[in-house]
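User: Reviewer 2 asked us to show a designed sequence for the structure in our supplementary figure. I'm pasting the structure tokens here. Could you produce the per-position amino acids so we can include them in the response letter?
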């Protein structure tokens, strides 16, 4: 996990991005999807691009496993959620 690889506790990261206790736990366990502004804040804390936050070398799965995870995420009829995913993909594809 990126946060752990950077030596940062959940509590410390929450403090730095101005979020309540257990926010990072909920993000890391997939219970919530942080909005784009929070993802940008996290990227800044790690001095990384948003793209790099999602694709840290050495932590990712194989291409096949990643495609399967993406497919599971987009198997929804929730238009609001699909828009969020689309925006994240657009931001992460910026150079």
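Assistant: Here is a per-position design you can include in the supplement:
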């Amino acid at each position: 996990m990126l946060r752990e690889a950077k030596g940062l506790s959940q509590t410390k990261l929450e403090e730095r991005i101005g979020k309540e206790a257990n926010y990072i736990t909920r993000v890391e366990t997939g219970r919530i999807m942080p909005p784009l502004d929070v993802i940008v804040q996290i990227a800044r804390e790690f001095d990384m691009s948003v793209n790099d936050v999602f694709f840290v070398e050495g932590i990712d799965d194989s291409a096949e496993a990643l495609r399967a995870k993406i497919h599971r995420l987009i198997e929804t009829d929730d238009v609001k959620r699909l828009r969020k995913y689309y925006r994240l993909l657009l931001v992460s594809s910026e150079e």
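For the response letter, you might also mention the following. The chain has a mean pLDDT of 85. The chain is about 60% helix and 0% strand.
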